[in-house]
Amino acid sequence: MIEVLNASKVFATPQGDVRALDDVTLRIEEGQFVAICGPSGCGKSTLLSLVGGLASPTSGTVTVAGQPISQWSPARRAAFRADNVGFVFQLFHLLPYLNVLDNVLLAAASRRNGARERATELLVRFGLEDRLSHRPGELSVGQRQRVAMARAMLNAPRLLLADEPTGNLDAENAAALLDLLREYHAGGGTILLVTHEERAAQRAQRRLRMDRGRFCEA
């Protein structure tokens, strides 16, 4: 499902080059739930952005679902993401001027057939049936994260990428979000979760640790 081979990512800064990833190799089979742990700044989120096609490596290759996405243009990667990848972020990235339903529908490229019905179904399933017309500012933190999860799952992606999804949640809401991830995984989905929180990492089948842009012993 995911194959990262000798991937490095270097960012140019006024103070000099910063090597966010350093010759990383990773293989994740379809249907696995993998957590990558480590402190802030260790390269976890950079790795996630490469796997999701949000960026390309400075060197090395990234293959997802048999497709060499690291060799593609940004536009082609974006089209691939829309059909195959869902994202859940710590900061939700909901648009404040759109209601809950329309925020979820942002993931539906060109309003594909049945998108509104599926979005409504997901929001009902996540306990937000009475919040469809509310805006993000009218929701609790936990409700906003559930909206973000519904958006990530709208297109029934094969791969779900979660970047510190419990970082802004209390214990109860974090547990609820992790239950949704587990449910997605039980249905055959593949998950790559990056986190520095033990409670989140414990839900994964496989745990890896990063430090200074490389994998190290857990």
What does this structure look like?
The chain is 32% helix and 28% strand. The protein has helices spanning 44-51, 74-84, 100-105, 115-125, 141-153, 171-186, 198-201, and strands at residues 2-13, 16-28, 33-37, 59-64, 85-89, 159-163, 190-195, 206-211, 214-216. A six-stranded mixed β-sheet has the order 5-6-7-3-8-9, sandwiched between helices. Strands 2-1-4 form a three-stranded antiparallel β-sheet. Helix 5 packs parallel to helix 6 (171-186). The longest helix is centred in the last third of the chain and has 16 residues, at 171-186. The mean pLDDT is 93.
Count of β-strands? 9
Overall shape: it is: globular
SS element count, helices:
7
Q: State the order of secondary-structure elements, H for helix, E for strand.
A: EEEHEHEHHHEHEHEE
Specify the helix fraction band: 25-40%
What characterizes the major β-sheet? 6 strands, mixed
**Overall residue-averaged pLDDT value:** 93
Strand order of the largest sheet: 5-6-7-3-8-9
The fraction of residues in strands falls at 25-35%
Question: Structural class of the helix and strand makeup?
Answer: alpha/beta
Uncertain runs:
none
What's the alpha carbon Rg, rounded to whole Å?
Answer: 17 Å
Distance between the termini: 23 Å
